[in-house]
Amino acid sequence: MNTQLDHEYGVSPEAGTVRLERTLPGPIERVWAYLTESEKRGKWFASGPMELRPGGNITFHFHNSKLAPDSGPPPEKYKECEGMTSYGRVIRCEPPHVLSFMWGEEQGDESEVTFELSDRNGEVLLVLTHRRLRNRTELVSVAGGWHVHVGILIDVLNGREPKPFWSKMEALEAEYDKRLPQTE
Question: CA spacing 20 to 30 A to 56: which of 98, 113, 118, 178?
Fold first, then answer.
C-alpha cells in the first residue's frame, strides 16, 4: 500500500475511535476562529452558538448541501442529516490549542470530539479525534464525515471552492468501509 496515500485517510487507533491529522494554513488563531465562531464554522461544518468554557453549551445546525456549490440535495441515505440540529457541551477549552466536547447526548449516543492545534512554522497541525463511537457503521460514517468536513475547511482556508459535499461523502464512506477494521 502507498503510505503517502494512507496518511491522507483517518485511522482507528482503538475501538470506537477515529483520528485524522491534517496540516492547515495558519496562523493558529485563524484556524481556532474557524472551529469556534458560528459564522466561520458554518462554512465548513455547522453553525450555531458555542460557549467556550468547560460545561458550555453547543448547538450545531447542519446544512451540508450548502457547504459547496453543486452539492445538490442529500441522497436518501443522508436525508435526516440535512437541516439537523445537534447539541453538545464543552469539556475542555484551551485557546487556541485544544477544544473538546461531548456531542449527541440528545440521541442517547454521546461521543467525544477533540481538536488539537499545534503551530508548525506558520502552518497548523490539526489532530481531530472522535471517541466513543458505538459500532463499526457509526465509525465508518463519522470517518467519512470528518474527512469531507475537514477537506472543506482546508479549501476554505486556502480560498478554494470546495468539491460537492454528498458525492464526496458517499465515496469516502465507501473507502473507509474498506480501510477500517472489520471487527472491534
Answer: 118
Q: Report pLDDT digits (tens) over 43-70.
A: 999 999 999 999 999 999 999 999 998 8
- Secondary-structure breakdown of the chain: helix, strand, coil percentages, each rounded to the nearest 5: 35, 30, 35
Q: What is the mean pLDDT of residues 91-119?
A: 92
Task: Identify the structural domains of the chain with CATH numbers, from first to last.
Answer: 3-179 (3.30.530.20)
Please give the residue that has the higher pLDDT: either 107 or 78: 78
> How far is CA 106 from each of CA 28, 76, 85, 95, 110, rounded to the nearest angstrom?
32, 23, 10, 27, 8
- Candidates 6, 13, 22; CA nearest to 149 is 22
